[in-house]
Here is the input.
Amino acid sequence: MQPQLQPTRAIRELTDELISQIAAGEVVERPASVVRELVDNALDAGATQINVRLLAGGVRLISVEDNGAGIPPNELPIALKRHATSKIVDLHELESVGTMGFRGEALAAIVSVSELSIFSRTADQDSATLLNARSGELQAAARSVGTTVEVKELFYSTPARRKFLKTDATELAHCVEAVRRHALTRPHVGFAIWHEGKLVEQWRAQNPGDAQETQIDRRLADVLGEDFLRDSVAVHYQSGNFTVYGRAGLPDTARSRGDQQFAYVNGRFIRDKVISHAARAAYEDVLHGHRQPVYALFIEVDPARVDVNVHPTKIEVRFRDGREVHQAVLHAIENALAAPRSAAAAALDSLGETDFAIGANAVKPPTTNVTPSANNWAQRDWQQANMPLAGDTARSLEILWQHKPSSGLAAQEDTREALKSFATPNTETQQQWPLGKAIAQLHGIYILAENAQGLVLVDMHAAHERIVYEQLKTQMDAQSLNSQPLLIPATFQATAHEIATAEHCADTLLALGLEISALSANSLAIRAVPIHLARGDVVALARSVLAELAQHEASTVLARARNELLATMACHSAVRANRHLTLDEMNALLRQMEVTERSDQCNHGRPTWRQLSLRELDALFLRGR
Ligand SMILES: Nc1ncnc2c1ncn2[C@@H]1O[C@H](COP(=O)(O)OP(=O)(O)OP(=O)(O)O)[C@@H](O)[C@H]1O
Ligand SMILES: [Mg+2]
Here is the structure.
């Protein structure tokens, strides 16, 4: 985000009325708060290079030097006054503020707890002016256009507060974090941090001529590491009043702490419950337990729709419509995570761009900019255009699984029948299949496949479970979860509790495609099941769903419990371990994975496939050394 300040405006004292509107409070808690405020000011002044120098974790010295617009000499003393600002003049401007600062408080607050001096020079002046805050003296000094603020001996007059500070190393870490937060969202600004004369961090300015997304990606890689970029997918979403972009970490990279969650609103780093809740919800289907996702999200919204004047340190904001921002963030991340990476990888591979060195996670996400709502369809279109046979194969898979044998001879008959319509893929197209050509099954658990990059390993039960689950969800969303009446109802001995649940939740069961009714005082009859699941063990399925429903009790919770119920159903119908699959069945499963959303994770958030590259295989055998 570029600063929206007109640098020519004078610093003026705010009216009392406006002062009373401003969220006041403790601004300076520790050295990092000073760093944040001074960097805010430098950014507002349009700086493209900001250098931070610290001594003793910032307690002895914080110096922030910028190449921004500078402050005219006559305004220097006003800058240090409380409620003096060049950034807003009236309430109207406060309501749509686009700069980091607006209260005219930061410098005054810092002056009151430290020894402060400012050197500044505007483009109109031949030399710089130095203001010593304690003496109030102005004198000529030498420096180029821009401003340097030096803050020495923080809390010197309030030893009690100084005692609350942690070690220099800890305070330094907080200062670096404060600059890092700014740096992530300002790729066109260069930052450097020195501590005790040593360069601690340096992030060079990105070329302003590059696309914004490229600049952001490079800056994210510089600040958070190449791994972050490699293990995340691009977020790009536009809806109504919101634009959401940035990157969302792959589910595998979730952490036990939420320390890699960066959210920005109009270039301001914030902590916001609505946003973090929306992000967590977006991962719900691919991340289980208490793992914390990793993300850097940049939200742009008309400044008039968000109130930044709610917290003294501006770390919180209030949205005019919280629901709207929740939806935007949720959909932005969901869309980004939905596309199977196998397909994305192939898209890049066909451009000769991929390096699949380190397993599935090394597969880079697509760099193409698809509009989110069209995302999934774009993915499918791509599939169809590039892999003409894959679509046919996927359809054959449906036939296959519908004829999924339960056991023995009948099973073989079924499979053979299904295979009649199975198109055997030609070798040329096999090369293009992201998950490759099946070559074997290992211990009844894994499918081994060969693709251009090397070896693909697939957990067949986990993968199939996700495919069935996604199908059930799609069908239920489209209200086409058709059930199939059973010619001979399946009956089973049931507990009084199960019978009560079946009666009580009959509507919910019907919505799930299950018709279950009491046959006697101690037995239930299953009369219909979803078409998809008709071949599985319907009794086990019914029992699990009833048990789950009993926990969730009323049918009113269907919306909330829906995904859990569908997951239970999917688990029952997914191909079991130890079932022998033919190569054609394995290939069909691979093709289906390539076109199924979220197929990279099983329903419990674990990966469904891994890539072992030829390079990794070579390394195993010390080849080429
Ligand atoms: N690095 C800088 N370059 C140019 N002008 C600056 C710089 N730092 C401060 N100023 C000027 O001094 C004024 C006061 O700064 P201060 O940080 O106290 O208040 P603010 O940024 O206006 O509001 P806030 O208290 O919300 O930060 C600013 O409005 C700005 O005009
Ligand atoms: Mg400020």
